[in-house]
Design brief:
Largest interface: A-B, 21 and 23 residues
Shape of chain A: globular
Number of strands of chain A: 11
Largest sheet of chain B: 6 strands, mixed
Number of helices of chain A: 0
Radius of gyration of chain A: 13 Å
Number of strands of chain B: 11
Shape of chain B: globular
Order of helices and strands of chain A: EEEEEEEEEEE
Helix content of chain B: under 10%
Mean pLDDT of chain A: 95
Number of helices of chain B: 0
Strand content of chain B: over 45%
Structural class of chain B: mainly beta
Mean pLDDT of chain B: 95
Distance between the termini of chain B: 41 Å
Radius of gyration of chain B: 13 Å
Distance between the termini of chain A: 31 Å
Order of helices and strands of chain B: EEEEEEEEEEE
Largest sheet of chain A: 7 strands, mixed
Oligomer: heterodimer
Chain lengths: 114, 110
């Protein structure tokens, strides 16, 4: 158990819909990272939040957005869903802001678009 | 941005043999290199990491080496066991994100 909690474990929805994925970081960690994992693209960094503020953006689509709340949990919102958005979405957390430190991953949310 | 190449994409070894996975990176400013193990359907799990001021690090049967000049780093697993079968990812930290290689599927044959 990494201490990072992600809900739900599975989501099945249709094209055009909107979903919200939730992540609670390990106790004491201030940074939250979101990754997308698909078969052909590997682990792709989407976005990072540190102590409530957006810190870094990767290959995140405009249809996707995220936020981190005062209790440090984070939500990833995916809208106007397309078939290609089907993937595993992981959240990771770390103590500080920088990328040069261990990141601990949650168990992921498997998103299936029908 | 950072680019991480990982080889081989698949690797089969006999139980008890050693396995080596190699990665190269492009950004000379990268200074942190973790390795993750991901079993089927599970989360990536950090197994070892190395920083740019260190050339080698060992943890029991696992070791990682780093050559900053050549910009490559490698994972070595000795005395492989069936439970080592998984996908292994290398990564390199640039200024703005952690970039992952595409993974190596390691199969350990009993």
């Amino acid at each position: 158990d990494s201490g990072v909690t992600q809900t739900p474990k599975h989501l099945i929805t249709a094209t055009g819909q909107r979903v919200t994925l939730r992540c609670s970081p390990r106790s004491g960690d201030l940074s939250v990272y979101w990754y997308q994992q698909s078969l052909d693209q590997g682990l792709q960094f989407l976005i990072q939040y540190y102590n409530g503020e957006e810190r870094a953006k990767g290959n995140i689509l405009e249809r996707f957005s995220a936020q981190q709340f005062p209790d440090l949990h984070s939500e990833l919102n995916l809208s106007s869903l397309e078939l290609g958005d089907s993937a595993l979405y992981f959240c990771a957390s770390s103590v500080d802001e920088g990328f040069n430190q261990p990141q601990h991953f949650g168990d992921g949310t498997r998103l299936s678009i029908l | 941005g950072e680019n991480v190449e990982q080889h081989p994409s698949t690797l089969s070894v006999q139980e008890g043999d050693s396995a080596v996975i190699k990665c190269t990176y492009s950004d000379s400013a990268s200074n942190y290199f973790p390795w993750y193990k991901q079993e089927l359907g599970k989360r990536p799990q950090l197994i070892i990491d190395i920083r740019s001021n260190v050339g080698e690090k060992k943890d029991q049967r696992i070791a990682v080496t780093l050559n900053k000049t050549a910009k490559h780093f490698s994972l070595h697993i000795t005395e492989t066991q069936p439970e080592d079968s998984a996908v292994y990812f290398c990564a390199a930290s640039g200024s703005y994100q952690l970039t992952f290689g595409k993974g190596t599927k390691l199969s350990v044959i009993p």
